[in-house]
Amino acid sequence: MVRPPWGKISVGYLMDIFTQAEILLRDAHYETWTWSGSTGPVTCFENAALMGFIHVFDTADTLLDIWRANQQGALTRHAGSLRGAGAKAWNVYSVFLTPDHDARRGREIERIEEDFSLTRKIARGSITTVDDVETALLPLLSLRSKPLLGASNFETRLRTRLRDIPPEAVTAFLNETTPADVARILGATS
Predict the structure, then answer these.
(1) Cα gap 147→115, rounded to integer Å
(2) What is the DSSP secondary structure assignment for residue 45, as one 8-state letter?
(3) 153-169: string of b/e by CB count within 10 Å (b at 16+)?
(4) What pLDDT, in 10s, does the model give residues 118-174?
(5) What's the pLDDT tens digit per position in 60-88?
(6) CA atoms of 161 and 154, how far apart (whole Å)
(7) Using CA of residue 23, residue 24, residue 27, residue 32, what is the dihedral sign?
(8) CATH number belonging to domain 17-140
(9) What is each CA distance from 34 to 19, 45, 54, 85, 144, in whole angstroms?
(10) pTM, whole model, 2 decimals?
(11) Cross-strand bridge partners of residue 46
């Protein structure tokens, strides 16, 4: 369920955006905790390089009406920590999300990111799936790639990639020859 800013549960949406965002951030090695802001819960997050606050709104209109006040409230509440954060204080993010599919307000929500005052911003509407949450939070997540490994011959693939290295050195490497012997072979052929 979505926890809107006023603490009520919206039955229209089945996914808890706060929980999914927290799971993704923890998987990306952030510390997370919840703070009860003046307009509702806020998920706070921090790692060695940056920190931020996630605000979830029930509607696009509510997000657009109070995002500035929520940003200021989070900054005021955490001012002491921010002052002591050093360089990390330049990497503070405010994240504003809503499950609302209001197409006419969608571009307005995304335009929030163009406001460079106080914090960096991520603002998205139509957040209804885990993939939507992940896509919204991509700027905060580590780069990940999924290698496409099929049922192919590893040795053949490796030899193809190492075609600039002398074949005897590749064979020695693949046959578990000691690193010193591989280096000797490479040195003798160069």
Answers:
(1) 37
(2) E
(3) eeeeeeeeeeeebeeeb
(4) 999 999 999 999 999 999 999 999 876 666 656 567 777 777 888 888 888 888 888
(5) 999 999 999 999 999 999 998 888 888 88
(6) 11
(7) negative
(8) 3.40.1350
(9) 10, 9, 9, 19, 27
(10) 0.69
(11) 31, 51
